Amino acid sequence: MPAGTLYRGREGMWSWVAHRVTGVLIFFFLFVHVLDTALVRVSPEAYDEVVATYKTPIVALLEYGLVAAILFHALNGLRVIAVDFWSKGPRYQKQMLWTVVGIWVVLMAGSLYPVLGHAARELFGS
Amino acid sequence: MSSDTTSAIGPVEGAAYDVDNPAPYIEPPRKRTGRTPKSTRGNFEMAAWLFMRLSGVVLVVLVLGHLLIQLFLDGGVSKIGFAFVAGRWASPFWQVWDLLMLWLAMLHGANGLRTVINDYAERANTRLWLKGLLYTATVFTILLGTLVIFTFDPNIR
Ligand code: HEM
Question: Which residues form the signal peptide (chain B) (predicted)?
Answer without folding.
Answer: none
